[in-house]
Design a protein that fits this description.
lyase, single chain, Gyrase A, domain 2, 4 strands, four-stranded antiparallel beta sheet, Pterin_deHydtase, about 90 residues, Putative pterin-4-alpha-carbinolamine dehydratase, alpha+beta, 4-alpha-hydroxytetrahydrobiopterin dehydratase activity
């Protein structure tokens, strides 16, 4: 089991563009059109599957919202920060 990050650790490690929302970290990515967002979701899904750590994803017309938390641990862990950085690399 991964250890929960402290508030200070979350604050210092949270990638640019990401925000904390309770026990989750979240980011909304903007796109020129719907299909570009869908392509991004496919890339993110492949990364998540490789890491075996799956986000919640909401798809809008020109945006995709990604939410990460470590459900088993009950909050934000290093796995969430790592995945956020990997998703940003796909953007």
């Amino acid at each position: 089991m991964a250890e929960l990050l402290t508030d200070d650790e979350i604050r210092t490690q949270l990638p640019n563009g990401w925000e904390r929302d309770g026990d989750e970290i979240t980011r909304t990515y903007g796109f020129d059109d719907y299909l570009a967002g869908i392509a991004f979701v496919t890339q993110v899904g492949e990364v998540a599957e490789e890491e075996f750590h799956h986000p919640e994803i909401r798809v809008g017309y020109e945006e995709v919202e990604v939410r990460l938390t470590s459900h088993e641990e009950g909050g934000i862990t290093e796995k969430d920060i790592r995945l956020a950085n990997l998703f940003d690399a796909e953007y």
